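A common beginner's mistake is to predict each chain separately and then try to dock the pieces by hand. The better habit, illustrated here, is to supply every component at once so that their relative placement is modeled jointly.
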Amino acid sequence: MSTERITKKLTFKTFRFNAETDFLPYFKTYEMEVGKDELVLDILNRIKWEFDGSFSYRRSCRHGICGSCSIKVNGKPVLSCKQNVWELVDIFKTDTLLLEPQSKKRVVKDMIIDKKDFWDKHARLKPYLEAEIDEHPEKEILVSPEEAEELLEADYCIQCGNCYYACPVVEVNEEYFGPAQFAKAYRFNADVRDTAKRERLEAVRPMGPGVWDCVKCFECAEACPKDVNPIEKITKLHNQLFEEGMAEDNVATRHAVGFKHSIKKHGLLDEGELVRYSEGNIGVLKHLPEAIAMFKKGKIVMPWNMPKSKNLDEIKTLVKSSSKVKF
Amino acid sequence: MAELKYALYTGCTARESTPELLMSTMAVAKKLGIELILLDEASCCGASHLQDFDDFLSLVLNARNICYAEKLGLPMVTICNTCQLNTVMTKERLDSDEDLKSQVNEKLAEVGLEYKGTSSVRHFLYALIDDYGLDKLAEKVEKPLSDFNVAAFYGCHNIRPSHIHHKHNSKVIEKDVGEGGGEEGFTTDPMMAKYNNNENPYNPNSLDRLIEALQGKSVDYDSKNKCCGFHADLQAPKTANRLTGTALLDAIDNDADMMVTPCPLCHLNMDVKQHAVAKEMGRDIALPVLHLPQLVGLALGIDPKELGLQHNVSEATFV
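With all components supplied together, the output reads:
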């Protein structure tokens, strides 16, 4: 068997910036032979050890647990110590990989970013178990496998921030909590021992910072290196708000509930009525300019022409018998 | 090649605010000899909002939609990214959880239906690329788009989460994955798979390849795989307008003559809201935005009126 090491010659275009000395960021390019088992973290190490000792990045556990070494490669958020380099070459079909920090506007030095906003928001959602437990319990508190299943994968989150810095809402709305924070809120809300569920729901229900501002883009699910699937947990928090009777009567909640009304009536969604129902009779007026533009182009269906699904009776029956939630 | 025949799940938008999407889909299918049977019995997929309120109801309704494709013995094809995602997410959950499938089937039995899981579900974009074939489509081009720079806007729900789409929207050639043979199969691991159309959510290429098959020039711009914000339009209009505006301006700044999208919800934001978005962004915005089958239809030489171009709000004056 051959002992020759198989390598690929790859180019790494690397984001460089030192907030203390640089006015603008710049890119430096490094070329190296890369073996098929090398991880992105190996490349970061080699840049520092073989090319430039000033190159900076975070690393700690090297076992995909601490979450400190996350960066973006060709725009894809990766956990450096988990991500194989050849796989990236394969999926991007290129020999040149762009190494960037998770968030360029938060850079302190090279790959190192300031995660203060991430941790501050995290802390505001009680990211811990709150329970009244006897200081000297006589027996352990048992959680059944079925109850533990309810956590889904939420407890696998390592707070790497990949989902948070990939979330487009975080980019344009500074007060938005973010997917990692919501996943953590769900993790403790779903724990049968916890007693702070309603407090967390109180915190995540306002529009602006809360769960209703999620744009449902699935960037968080794609970015997560631990398959936590944060958007699933955001949906679960929506569900909990309704189940706990804590969903406020606002445009976002009416928007969700309006789908049920429309489907029950037509099978299909009555788009115009949904907007009126969600916004209210006054609020709907702000959509008038777009409605007029659409009307002129034949894009508004009048109520008397609203299409209905065939076999609508079936849909009505199913809505009646399957619907489990009240509002 | 066997004649292509699908059960078409139109979704709601193509029946209401984007009539041009249904018109152009039917026109393109007719021109290419693809048979589409309309699933008139289908209901709304819930668009990820009903799911926030009543998850179980959304499962039952989506399963019912698939039942009607199964009754026809046909694969389902969708023309809306959000319908595609909600339908395949339902399929994934029911196909992998017998208990949940039983609960859903218990409800469906009340109306004489049973979800079996026998019909595949894929977006029309991938039906054109993988089933019909880009080479064959290229041969049918009568009016090449060679004068135009076209910005592909993919829309979130056709590319993320990739593991779902890799299973339902892409054909995987097993012989490329490794040993075992030459037959088409599926894999759920995006990292290990070799796809026909290898849809990398960080650098998707299916629409770009389609544009090039129509002899157009696909625009390289950062926002092509980003979110338009549609699902927060009502509750967070500023967020939605900024996301829509960033993508439109990115396309314009990279010399796009027009944009094309396979998602009617993205289309509504990109096409109808340009005036409001321009206000938010502080810049004028005027960019024709076409539905996927409108673009294909133009290249196939179909009359623009048959493609419903007159329904587009952003003026498509190049036609």
